[in-house]
Design a protein that fits this description.
In the N-terminal section; belongs to the peroxidase family. With 1225 residues, this protein is α+β, with helices and mostly antiparallel strands. It contains 44 helices and 29 strands. 44% of the residues lie in helices and 12% in strands. The chain is elongated.
C-alpha cells in the first residue's frame, strides 16, 4: 500500500520555495511582442501589473476582457521568474492578502506559523528522517549564503541548529535550485501521487486509457492547452511556456524590480461594525425597554379602568349632596413649610362654631368658640395683601390665602360681624407675610407639642423612665413647659382615641374629663382619667363609666341612659346592631341580673351587672394613639380562640359547645387543657387529657432534617412533577448545546460563535418544549376529568395554574437568554467577512468578493427569524405585564384580551423556526400533541358556550354582592366546591369570568354570589338590578362554561376538614356546607366526621347571605358535624373600653339567648383576626388519632398566605399533618 495523500511537509514547507520565484510584477504583451503599459488608478501607467495590488481583485481595469487575459498569459510566458533562493519579494513578505478584516499579512511568516500549528518536524529531524546528511554547523547548510544572513538566523534560534525549523532551513539550502531537503520531499510526494493513485493515467492496469491515449496525454503540454482555449497565435509562444531560452519569441524588456512599479497598498483594517455601534446599542436598549413600554401602557389602561370602576361604584351608591352654607368663603389653607396649599371653604356658623370644609365639602376641622373669647387676626402687609393668620387660644393657627385683597377683605368683614354678634373679642394686626408664616403654629408644630404631652402623660401614669419615654429636642425645658401648659381640644381628644369628634362616646368621655367646663382638657384633667383606666380596679372603671353616662347627674343610670351608653359603643362598629337588637340586649341584661322591674340603676347595681366580667374590666384600658410610647404600656394580652371539644357527641346543645373566649386560656400555654372563669353554663365537656409522650430534644441538624422531610412529604407530588419537567428541559438544552458544540456537521458556525450558538440553540429547544406543554395546564376539562382518576395521586392537578405561572416565568427567562444568545450571534455575524458567512450560510449568502457582511439591522428586521423574534419579544412583554397580579386585579378585561395573543404567539413561533437558517424546523415536534389535546379541550368548552341559560332570580345583596340563580343545564353534573366561567353578552363583551358555585349538587338550580369588585362585575350588578314599577323582570341570559374541579371539592376525603373563608372567598364553602348537611340528613356514609368552618369578615353585615346559609346548616345539623367560628376583624382585639363592653354584651347574648348578638347565629363570634397556628395546634390535640387534616382556604392573598404559613409551621412536627388547598383562578 502506497499513501498518495499530500504530506504536511510538502504542503506547508516544500512547495513554499516557489514563493522565492515570484517577481514583484507581471508583464502583459500582445502577439507582436509589444509589451503593454498598465494604468494604475490615477498614478499613471506602469510597465507591468504589480503583484501585491492585484491579489484576489476581481474587478481589475487592466483585465476586463478576454484579450487582456491573453496578453497577461503571453507576458507571463516571456517573463523570467526570480531565482530559487532564500529571497522573497516584498509583495509576499508584507503585502500578502490578509485574513478577515486585515487586508495584509506576511506570506512566509504565515507559512512558518502554519507549520508550527501542524507540528512539522524541525529541519534537522526532517533530514535524519529522510536519510540525508545533517550539517554540523550553520555554514554547512549552504556555503553560498551570505554569512551575515546565517549569523542573523542563528541568533534567532539561539545558535542551536537543532531548533531551526523546516521552512527556513529548506530556503537557506536552496540556491538556483531546490536544496536536497526540498528536492527529496517533492520527489517523494510526486512518486507517491503517481504510484499510489490507481487512476493515474499511466497505470495501464486500471484500463482507463489505451497506450495511444496515454502517449497522447504525455505529449500534451501547457502550450497545447493555451493554444486550444485562447485566441493566442501559436507562433507567439515558445513550445515550453514555463521556460524561456535564447531564441524564444518576445524576450522581456528587463528583469522586473520594484523600481518603476507602483507602491503596494498599505495594510488597512476593515471595521465591518464601523458606524453600527450606536444603532446596535439603541436597538438592544429598545428591545429591553419593551417590557417597560408594556408596563407604561398597562399603567394607563389600569388608571382608566380604575376611574371607570370608581365611576360605576359612585353611580351605584346613593350620593348625598352637601351644599355649602350661604356664608361659606372659599380660600386656600397653608399647612406649613414645604407643604402644598389646598382649597377649603370657611363657614361661620350661628352657634359660635368655625368650620373648615375640603373641596368635597367634608368637615376637616371644627373650632368651638367660647363667649368673651379673644381672637387674634394678623393680616399680611406685603404687596398683594391676600394672606391672613387666625389665632384662636388653645388651637393651632389657621393660615388662609385668598386670590385678592378684596376677597380677604370680604372674609375679614364677615369675621368682624360674627365676633360682634357673639360677643367675641377680635384683635387685628398687620405684619409682613414672611413674619406671619414664622409666627404661625401649624398642625405639624402642634403635633410635636402633643407628642411631648403624651410622652410625659404616660411617663407619669406608668412610671416610665425618661429614656423610655423618648428623646426630647435640645430646647426640651421650653418645649416641655409649652406642652404641659397646652390643652386638648375635643377634635384632638377624639383623634387620640381614633374616633370622630361627634361620636357619643367622645362627648361623654370629654364632658366627664373636662372638669372646669372650658371646652378643653388640660394635662391634669387628662391624667386623672387616664390613671383610672391604666391602674384602676374594676370597681373604679365601672364607677367611671357609670359617671360618664349619668347624664342628668342624679346618681342613677336609667334604662335610656344605659341604652345611650351601649349605643355609643356600637358606633365604633358602624352601627352593626339595629336599635331593636340593642333594646333587646338591654332588656336581656336587666332581666338576667334581676333588675327587670327597675327603671334606674345605682352604681352598685351597675357593678353587679358586670361582676361576671371582672377579668375583662381589669384589662380594660383607654387606648390612646399619641405619644410614641406604643409598646411601653401595651398589656400582654394573647390571642384568644375558643376551646374545641374532643368529640362531637359529647354535647347535646350549643350551650355546651364552647366557653367564651375570655374563659379560654391562651393556646400553647401551660393551661391549655384547664379552663378558668367564675361561672360556666351547663356541664363542662369532657376534655382531652391523655398525657403527651415526652420527646427527646433534637439538635439543630436533626430539626432541619425533620423539617425538610415534612416539606418533601407535603409537596412530594409538586416536587416530582417540577423535577421531571425541569429535567426534560435541561436535557433538551444539553442535547442541543452538545450537538452544536461537538457533534454537528462541520459548517463553521460553532467556531464562529461558540457561546452564542450553544445558548441560542439550547434555550430554543427548552422554550419549544415549555411553550408547547404549557397548553396542558389550561385544559380545564381534561384536568377536571383526570383529577377524579388514579393520576391525582401522583400529579397535583389543583396546582395547574401555579404550574402554568411557573412554566411561563421559566420560559420567559429562557427567552431572554435565547435573545441574548442571538444578540451575540448578530454581533459576530456583523463583524465577520462575507466569505465566512457564505461558508456558514451557503443558501443565504454568495461570496462576491466584497468581504462586506450585512449590517446588524438586516439580521434583526430584514430576516424572517429576526423580525418574528422581535415580534415575539413584543407579544411576550405585553402578555406577561398584563398577566401580572397587580394589573389583573385592576383590569381583568385587559388581561383577558392580551392573553388571547397566545394564538399570535404560536403562529410567530412556527414561522420563527420555519426559515431554517441554522437548523431544520423542530417546533412542531413538541407542539403537535399538546396542540391537539388543547384544541379538543377548547371544542368541549365551545360546545357548552353556545347554550344560553335563563336567569331565574337575581337579587342585590349588601356589600355589593349580586345573587344570581339560573337554570341547570341538562346533564350538568358537578360537585360542591367546583367553579364555572360565565359570560353575559348583554354587557357588550364575550369575556368569561370564573366564579364558584354556591348551590349544592342536589339543588335543581345553580346559584352564584358575585361581588362587584371591578367594572365587569359592577356592570353585571347594574344590569340585574330589579326593574322599577310593577313590570315583570326579564333578565339577560348567561353563557356557562364548566364545571371545573379544584382542591376544595376534596373536603370529603379527610376525616377532619377545616374551611377558611375570607371576604367573597366564602362562596365555595356555602356549597360545601349545604352539601354536607344534605348528605348527613340522608344518612350517607362519609369519611368526613367533622368540619370546622372559620369565617373571617370585616363586619357581619358584609355577607349576610352566608349567615342565612349557616343558620340553615345549624338547624339541619343533627349530628354535630359542623363547628362554625366567625371572626369580625373590624373590632379591635385590645381590651379597650369600647371593645370590652361589646365583648361583654356578646358573651351575655350567647349565654342567655344561645345566639350571637352580631350574627344571630349559635356560632361563636370572635373579635379580631383568627390565630391560625394555635387553632391548628389545638386540633392536633383534640383529634390525636387523625393522621391528616384537610385545610381549604379561599379569600384575600394575605389570609391564604397566613394559613399556608401556619400549616408549614405545624407540619414541622411529627403530629397530625395539615394538607392545605387554596383557591386559584
Amino acid at each position: 500500500f502506497l499513501d498518495p495523500s499530500i504530506s504536511p511537509e510538502f504542503l506547508v514547507a516544500s512547495e513554499q520555495f516557489f514563493s522565492t520565484m515570484v517577481p514583484p510584477g507581471v508583464y502583459m504583451r500582445n502577439a507582436s511582442c509589444q509589451f503593454q503599459t498598465v494604468p494604475y488608478k490615477s498614478f499613471g501607467s506602469f510597465p507591468a501589473l504589480r503583484v501585491c495590488n492585484s491579489y484576489w481583485r476581481r474587478e481589475n481595469a487592466s483585465l476586463n476582457s478576454a484579450q487582456a487575459v491573453d496578453q497577461l498569459l503571453l507576458g507571463m510566458a516571456s517573463q523570467i521568474a526570480e531565482l530559487e533562493d532564500r529571497i522573497v519579494v516584498e509583495d509576499l513578505r508584507d503585502y500578502w492578502p490578509g485574513p478577515g478584516k486585515f487586508s495584509r499579512t506576511d506570506y512566509v511568516a504565515s507559512s512558518i506559523q502554519r507549520g508550527r500549528d501542524m507540528g512539522l518536524p524541525s529541519y534537522m529531524q526532517a533530514l535524519m528522517a529522510l536519510g540525508l546528511d545533517t550539517p554540523q554547523k550553520w555554514s554547512d547548510i549552504n556555503p553560498h549564503v551570505d554569512p551575515q544572513v546565517l549569523e542573523a538566523t542563528a541568533a534567532l534560534y539561539n545558535q542551536n541548529l537543532s531548533l531551526l525549523e523546516l521552512l527556513p532551513g529548506g530556503l537557506l539550502e536552496s540556491h538556483g535550485d531546490p536544496g536536497p531537503l526540498f528536492s527529496t520531499i517533492v520527489l517523494d510526494q510526486f512518486v507517491r501521487l503517481r504510484d499510489g493513485d490507481r487512476y493515474w493515467f499511466e497505470n495501464t492496469r486500471n484500463g482507463l486509457f489505451s497506450k495511444n491515449e496515454i502517449a497522447e496525454i504525455r505529449n500534451t503540454t501547457f502550450w497545447n492547452v493555451l493554444v486550444a482555449v485562447t485566441n493566442v497565435d501559436p507562433s507567439a509562444l515558445q513550445p515550453d511556456v514555463f521556460i524561456w531560452d535564447e531564441g524564444a519569441p518576445c524576450p522581456q524588456p528587463q528583469q522586473l524590480t520594484t523600481q518603476g512599479l507602483p507602491s503596494c497598498e498599505r495594510l488597512t483594517m476593515l471595521d465591518y461594525f464601523k458606524g453600527s455601534g450606536p444603532g446596535f446599542g439603541i436597538t438592544i436598549v429598545a428591545l429591553c425597554c419593551l417590557p417597560l413600554v408594556s408596563l407604561l401602557i398597562s399603567g394607563v389602561v389600569a388608571h382608566f379602568r380604575s376611574r371607570e370602576r370608581k365611576r360605576l361604584q359612585k353611580k351605584g351608591k346613593e350620593s348625598v349632596k352637601k351644599e355649602a352654607a350661604e356664608d361659606g368663603v372659599p380660600a386656600m389653607e397653608w399647612p406649613g413649610p414645604r407643604e402644598k396649599s389646598y382649597p377649603i371653604t370657611i363657614q361661620l356658623l350661628p352657634d359660635r362654631r368655625l368650620q373648615v370644609l375640603d373641596r368635597r365639602l367634608s368637615v376637616l376641622r371644627t373650632v368651638q368658640l367660647q363667649p368673651l373669647q379673644q381672637v387674634n387676626l394678623i393680616l399680611s402687609s406685603n404687596c398683594g395683601r391676600r394672606t391672613l393668620l387666625l389665632k384662636i387660644p388653645k388651637e393651632y393657627d389657621l393660615v388662609l390665602l385668598f386670590n385678592s385683597d378684596e376677597e380677604r377683605g370680604t372674609f375679614v368683614q364677615h369675621l368682624q360681624d360674627f365676633c360682634v354678634q357673639w360677643a367675641l373679642g377680635l384683635d387685628v394686626a398687620e405684619m409682613s407675610e414672611n413674619e406671619l408664616f414664622r409666627r404661625a403654629v401649624t398642625k405639624q408644630q402642634r403635633g410635636r407639642i402633643l407628642e411631648i404631652f403624651f410622652r410625659h402623660l404616660f411617663a407619669q401614669v406608668l412610671d416610665i423612665d425618661k429614656a423610655d419615654a423618648g428623646t426630647l429636642p435640645l430646647d426640651s425645658s421650653q418645649k416641655v413647659r409649652e406642652a404641659l401648659t397646652c390643652e386638648l381640644s375635643r377634635a384632638e381628644f377624639a383623634e387620640s382615641l381614633g374616633l370622630k369628634p361627634q361620636d357619643m362616646f367622645v362627648e361623654s368621655m370629654f364632658s366627664l374629663a373636662d372638669k372646669d367646663g372650658n371646652g378643653y382638657l388640660s394635662f391634669r384633667e387628662f391624667l386623672d382619667i387616664l390613671v383610672v383606666f391604666m391602674k384602676g380596679s374594676p370597681e373604679d372603671k365601672s364607677h367611671l363609666m357609670f359617671t360618664m353616662y349619668d347624664l342628668d347627674a342624679n346618681g342613677f343610670l336609667s334604662k335610656d341612659e344605659f341604652f345611650t351608653m351601649m349605643r355609643s359603643f356600637i358606633e365604633i362598629s358602624n352601627n352593626c346592631l339595629s336599635k331593636a337588637q340593642l333594646k333587646e340586649v338591654v332588656e336581656s341584661m336587666f332581666r338576667e341580673s334581676g333588675f327587670q322591674d327597675k327603671e334606674e340603676l345605682t352604681w352598685e347595681d351597675f357593678h353587679f351587672m358586670l361582676q361576671d366580667h371582672d377579668s375583662e374590666l381589669r384589662f380594660m384600658q383607654l387606648c390612646v394613639k399619641g405619644g410614641g410610647v406604643g409598646g411601653i404600656f401595651k398589656p400582654n394580652i394573647g390571642c384568644r380562640v375558643s376551646f374545641i371539644t374532643r368529640t362531637p357527641g359529647e354535647r347535646s346543645c350549643s350551650q355546651k359547645l364552647e366557653l367564651p373566649a375570655s374563659e379560654a386560656p391562651e393556646l400553647g400555654g401551660p393551661g391549655l387543657k384547664k379552663r378558668f372563669g367564675k361561672k360556666a353554663v351547663g356541664p363542662n365537656p369532657r376534655l382531652y387529657t391523655e398525657a403527651l409522650k415526652e420527646k427527646m430534644q433534637r439538635g439543630l441538624l436533626a430539626q432541619k432534617l425533620r423539617q425538610y422531610k415534612r416539606f418533601v412529604e407535603n409537596y412530594r407530588r409538586h416536587i416530582v412533577c417540577v423535577a421531571v419537567f425541569s429535567a426534560i428541559c435541561a436535557g433538551l438544552f444539553a442535547e442541543r448545546a452538545y450537538y452544536y458544540a461537538f457533534a454537528s456537521p462541520p459548517s463553521g458556525i460553532a467556531e464562529t460563535t461558540f457561546v452564542g450558538i450553544i445558548l441560542s440553540r439550547g434555550t430554543a429547544a427548552s422554550i419549544s418544549f415549555m411553550f408547547s406543554y404549557i397548553l396542558l395546564t389550561m385544559c380545564r376539562n381534561l384536568i377536571t376529568f383526570l383529577r377524579e382518576t388514579f393520576l391525582n395521586r401522583y400529579v397535583p392537578f389543583d396546582a395547574a395554574v401555579d404550574f402554568h405561572r411557573w412554566i411561563a416565568m421559566a420560559a420567559v427567562v429562557l427567552a431572554i437568554l435565547h435573545s441574548a444568545g442571538h444578540v451575540v450571534n448578530v454581533f459576530i455575524f456583523s463583524v465577520s467577512p462575507l466569505s465566512l458567512l457564505a461558508c456558514i450560510f451557503p443558501d443565504v449568502f454568495v461570496n462576491d468578493g466584497s468581504q462586506l457582511p450585512q449590517k446588524f439591522y438586516w439580521w434583526f428586521f430584514q430576516t424572517v427569524p429576526g423580525m418574528t423574534g422581535v415580534l415575539l419579544l413584543l407579544v411576550l412583554a405585553i402578555m406577561y405585564v398584563f398577566a401580572s397580579h397587580h394589573f389583573r386585579r385592576r383590569s381583568f378585561r385587559g388581561f383577558w384580551l392580551t392573553h388571547h395573543l397566545y394564538i399570535l404567539l404560536y403562529v410567530l413561533l412556527i414561522i420563527h423556526g420555519s426559515f431554517g437558517l441554522i437548523q431544520l424546523p423542530r417546533f412542531h415536534i413538541y407542539f403537535l400533541v399538546p396542540a391537539l389535546i388543547y384544541g379538543g379541550d377548547k371544542l368541549v368548552s365551545l360546545s357548552r358556550k353556545k347554550v344560553e341559560i335563563s336567569v331565574v332570580k337575581a337579587e342585590l345583596l349588601p356589600s355589593g354582592v349580586t345573587h344570581l340563580q339560573f337554570q341547570r343545564p341538562q346533564g350538568f353534573e358537578y360537585k360542591s366546591g367546583q367553579w364555572v366561567r360565565i359570560a353575559c353578552l348583554a354587557l357588550g363583551t364575550t369575556e368569561y369570568h370564573p366564579f364558584t358555585l354556591t348551590s349544592a349538587p342536589h339543588e335543581d338550580t345553580l346559584s352564584l354570589h358575585i361581588r362587584a369588585a371591578g367594572p365587569w362585575t359592577t356592570q353585571l350588578r347594574e344590569i340585574y338590578s330589579p326593574p322599577t314599577g310593577d313590570g315583570c323582570a326579564r333578565y339577560p341570559k348567561l353563557y356557562l362554561d364548566g364545571p371545573f374541579g379544584e382542591g376544595h371539592q376534596e373536603w370529603h376525603k379527610f376525616e377532619v376538614s377545616v374551611l377558611v373563608g375570607g371576604g367573597i372567598g366564602v362562596t365555595p364553602f356555602a356549597s360545601i356546607l349545604k352539601d354536607l348537611v344534605f348528605k348527613s340528613s340522608l344518612g350517607s356514609q362519609m369519611l368526613c366526621k367533622k368540619i370546622y368552618f372559620i369565617w373571617v369578615t370585616r363586619t357581619q353585615r358584609q355577607f349576610e347571605w352566608l349567615a342565612d346559609i349557616i343558620r340553615e346548616v345549624e338547624e339541619n345539623d343533627r349530628q354535630d358535624l359542623v363547628s362554625v367560628h366567625i371572626y369580625i376583624t373590624q373590632l379591635a382585639e385590645k381590651f379597650d373600653l369600647r371593645t370590652t363592653m361589646l365583648y361583654i354584651c356578646e358573651r351575655h347574648f350567647q349565654k342567655v339567648l344561645n345566639r350571637s348578638l352580631f350574627t344571630g347565629l349559635r356560632s361563636i363570634t370572635h373579635f379580631g383576626r383568627p390565630p391560625f397556628e394555635p387553632f391548628f395546634r389545638s386540633l392536633q390535640e383534640v383529634h390525636p388519632q387523625v393522621p391528616k387534616i384537610g385545610v381549604f382556604s379561599c379569600g384575600p392573598p394575605g389570609m391564604t398566605k397566613n394559613v399556608e404559613k401556619a400549616c408549614q409551621l405545624i407540619n414541622r412536627q411529627d403530629q397530625a399533618h395539615f394538607v392545605h388547598h387554596y383557591k386559584n383562578f
